[in-house]
Amino acid sequence: MGKSAGHNAVDGLQKRLTDYAIGLSYGALPQDTMHAAKVRVIDTLAALAGGFDGEPCRIARKMAARMQDADGVTIFGTTGKTTPDMAAFVNGTTARYVELNDVYHWPGSAGGHPSDVVMPILGVAEHARASGRDLIAAVVLAYEIYLRLSDAIGKRPFDCANYACLAVAAASARLMGLTRAQLADAMSMAIVPNIVLRQVRTGHLSMWKAVTAGHAGKAGVFAAMLAREGMNAPHLPFEGKSGWCDHVAGKRVQLDVMGGNGVSFKILDTLIKPRSSCATTISSILAAEKVAPALKNRIADVQRVTVEVYETAKTGMGTGEHHWNPDSRETADHSIPYVVAAALLDGTVTPKQFDAAHLHSPDLRALLAKIEVVANDEFTHAYEKLPVVHRTRVNVVTHSGERFTGEAGGDQGDLSQPKSDAQIAQKFLGVTEEFLGTARAKAMLERLWKLDGLENVAEIPTGFVKS
Hints:
This protein has helices at residues 12-23, 31-51, 55-65, 84-97, 118-127, 132-153, 161-176, 180-191, 208-228, 244-249, 279-291, 311-317, 329-332, 336-346, 356-359, 362-368, 377-383, 421-436, 438-449, 459-462; strands at residues 68-74, 81-82, 302-309, 371-375, 392-398, 403-408. Helix 4 runs antiparallel to helix 5 and helix 18 crosses helix 19 (438-449). It is α+β, with helices and mostly antiparallel strands and 467 residues long. The protein has 20 helices and 6 strands. The strands form 2 sheets. The chain has a 4-stranded mixed sheet with strand order 4-3-5-6. Strands 1-2 form a two-stranded antiparallel ribbon. It has 2 domains: 12-269, 2-methylcitrate dehydratase PrpD, CATH 1.10.4100; 279-412, CATH 3.30.1330.120.
């Protein structure tokens, strides 16, 4: 293992995160936090299985195949191996592609998809021959860094994948057994050269929307690998004259409160998705699903559809011509008009509703033109307080004068509702049985529920090969 090439000046935020990362251990985690980490690993692997055949995922695997490493990290779904950083790129991209992984919303926070950290960290755990307990602690650590920064910084023009990059670097350094100085260097080499702009999620979206997660994971793992070899990192990365806080985040933060010692861990506040779509479209899907049975074989009779949502959903997923004219899966799964039209036509929304046949369906396009999205002040208020409620109402009027309404939010079905272990298992098996076969999918699920008992997490990728 390499040694640090110099004595870096360490700033306040860097020291805070380093001390926290070094100090957090599996033994300090409450039972509910450990269980939440298992659930996020299970849920992310389900998302990976669902996204495996996506075009950017195939491209990433093709790239990785040119960088084979027999002693490296598994490309999930295959028996091939590549370098730890390239595996983070492939596996992170694949888990993100199908929009099934968890999401975070907290009033005033930047939000994000903290599960972007899971596959890169799992790869490093395989590389380090780490135990299931080591992996659980690393996942909790990465979530805590990601989400505390998301809360502290709030909405900015850069993408939340930047938090994933930093969190992966810290968690990877812990799994690799790096020193305090090396861990600080890893975070510096993650945050200084890797700034992802929110342009990746603006307007007509490209396949890079999913690739952003893989790119962030790759950069975080690579930073830890460099630190392990003794690469000297930039001084004062957060608070220096040209540092991240002033020039990217736009503010100085201290992170006085973090999980542990009686403070709840933020991983408990992330939300498990019940549908394969952007989080701020899911309530629209759930509401439209309640109307769909009444319109079966009668879609041509629909005169207009009004979707009432909270302001954030209206602004982000129901404003702009691209939401009525999606030209890619990436734009469609971020479009309220599209997912409502698909749900009214097919009764629900799964990954299949974003295939080429649906994207170019004349019936779906005709229905899209009849959909209006409006903000409801009451729904906005419910979204901006705790507990967060994602309220939506879909109103359909037919040419014959009939009116149908479907509502979601709170006790009528909500993204924020906690998911039972049975629901987690149902989601996992529903996606992975086709990928692994029924027997292997059930065996994998049983193994993952016992993650804390694994001596070597390398058992996981060897059993997660596509049939």
